[in-house]
Every structure is written in C-alpha cells, then in structure tokens.
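New to this. Explain these tokens.
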Amino acid sequence: MTRTSPVRAELPSTDAKSNSLIVEGWRFLAHSYAVVNQWQLLALSHRDDVEVKLRDAPLHKRGWQRQGGLFDTQTEHRLKSLPIAEAGEAADLTLRISFPIDLSPSRSRRTAIFATSENQVIRKDQMLSLREYEKLRFMPPPPDLKIVTPSRWSAEGFYRAGFARSQVLIVPHGAEPTVFRPMPERREHIRRELRISERECVFLSVGSMTENKGIDVLLRAFARVCETVPHARLILKGMDPLYQSKDRLLGMLQMLAPSEAQLVADRLTYFGRAFPHEQMAQLYQAADIYVSPYRAEGFNLPVLEAAASGLPVICTAGGPTDDFVTDDFARKIQSRRISAWLDAQEIFGLEPSLEHLIELMTASARDGDWRWRAGKAAALHVRLKFTWDHAVDALIRGLFG
C-alpha cells in the first residue's frame, strides 16, 4: 500500500505566534468527533498564526479504546508529537471537541465548544449533566461562550437553545485531498481484491447503522433496484467497536420480507471494523455511487470524503449536505420534515422518499456517462472549497478574527 501524508506549502515564518489555542478532544479513535479533531489538529499544526497545544479528553464510554494505525506512520507520529497543555495551563482560547457537551468555562480567556445538533435541538442525553441541561433550558447561555458547528442545519439547534447567532460559528468540515482523491489506477486492483467485477454497479454507504442514517430505507430501496438492475451491488461500512453496527444491520434485514432480505443478502458486502483512512480511501474507489438517505445528521462527513474521492452522490435533500453538495455531482432524494417526541422534547429530522430513492438509484446505475461527469465535478469541488485547510482557515477567522 502506498502511504501518503498531508502535504502543505510552508507558511511564512514569524517571530511569535499571534494567538494561543488549547484543544481539548479525542485522538486515536474512529468516532466522528475524534476524526474531525485529528484532521483539524494536523491542519492547525502547519500554521504560523496560532500556537496549538492539546489536552486529551476522557473517552465517552468505558468500553471504548484508543486505537493506533488509523493514520499512516508519519502522520500518526505528528499527532503523537503535538505539544500537550500542562494541568491548569490557559491560552487565548480553549476549543473543546468531545462528547457529551460540556459548557463549563475553561481556564483560558475564552471558550469555544464544538458540537452538533443532528435533531435541531440539544437533547438531554447530549449534555454532560442533567443540571447543565436544565440550566440551558431555563436560563440564557453564557454570553461569552462560542459554539462551533459544521452546518446550518445543526446551527438551528443552538439557536433554539437560546444561543445568539453571533455566538454560533458555522464551519464546514473538510476532506484531506492527499488521502481522499480519485485513484483510477488503483480501481481495478481494489475491486478485484473485493471480488467485484467491472460490470457490477456498486452502491456504498458508510456510518454507524443507527436509525438516523436511513440504512433501513436504503435496504428496502436496494431490494427494489435489484429487480431491474441485475448487476447492482451494495457495500456497507459500519463501526462495530463503537456502535454494534452489525447487530443493528441484522435487525434491519430481519424487517424486510424474506424474499427481499435474500435478494439484498446475496449482493451485500459488510465491513464492521475500524479502517485506517487510507483503507477507507480505497473503499471509496471500489464503489460507483455513494448513497446516504439520512434522516438526521450534523454534517455527514462520509458524503464529502466520497465526493473528494471522485464518487457521484445520492443523498437526502433539505439537510446539512445541502451546504456542500451541488447538482453537478449530487442527486438529492425528496424528503419531508418530520418530528417526534423524546423525553418530553420535540426533535426534528427528515424522511427521505423511498420511491424517489429507488428512482435515483436505478437511473444512476444505468447512466455511466453521468457517473463519470459527476465524479470529476465532485473531486474538483471538494479540492477547491472543502479541504481541511479551508475548514481551519474559517475556524481561525471565526475564533480569533
């Protein structure tokens, strides 16, 4: 396997960093918050306008374990070598990026919290304590606290919780173009290793297999697509160590009619372990179309990584992906806004149309010319507007500008 690491042009050196930043978050974990934190740290480490130190946050669940090897050797060494903030050390700003949401002030002059609001509300189970949840419900948030969130959809939850718009900084995530990129020279070899023939049309979806990902809708749609597209195939990538994704998937398969379940099972490939980023990049190369009929997301990073890898996209319309996909490479699934009650609180989401998803998957499988054009447009779009350097530029401007 060819190993690559993020490459940047060197910024002009200065005598001193103009801003100091302490990042409290997770490293060496496949959780989405840790993925975001690590890519941001790598991009921040190249800059001369901010001095960055980090503080490893405690893991959310007892059974979680840190894992090496998610990055190539050189990049992982860089992550391990980042300077650590001493106990009690302060900075111009502390950025906290872990779960659950902890709104307490840091020792630094200012505090910013990265968080997502998939259901456009701050739920009780998202907060560090019941006391803090109740406090947020009945009292205005601290006026000097900044929220960092990756989409307009997610930002609505913080506005609803009482945060002023000036307190909420929307910073879209990025994709690393030295890792997630088109690799046409590798495609045939990768597919051969996965026993995928060139005539097969492969749909791919990546996620925890939780209800908000819409995998149940995807399975029903794929069963219908198989009736008219005999060369269709589905790859699902879960995360068993954190979410027991395989058990969730098996439960959804059991909800299908026996004939549908058999049709899907015969053409389904599932991966449940944590993949290094380079292996994830290769998995995108094995696919023809990325599909995400999600119900609720804070951002949906795999859609962006798939686009960076040169994949056309089918995703739910009306949600956070509207912020970063275009009609040049994405076909959007019609959806309707839905709500439900959870712990005496109304939460919000989207319900993608099953029939429209079937229509889009079928049309995309039959239209190789569209897939080729869309894949080219997707990779270019991400490279020009949505890398981690773009994300960190926006982050630094928003926090220190």
Summary: The domain at 184-385 is CATH 3.40.50.2000 (Rossmann fold). The chain has two domains: 20-174+388-400, 184-385. The longest strand covers residues 335-342.
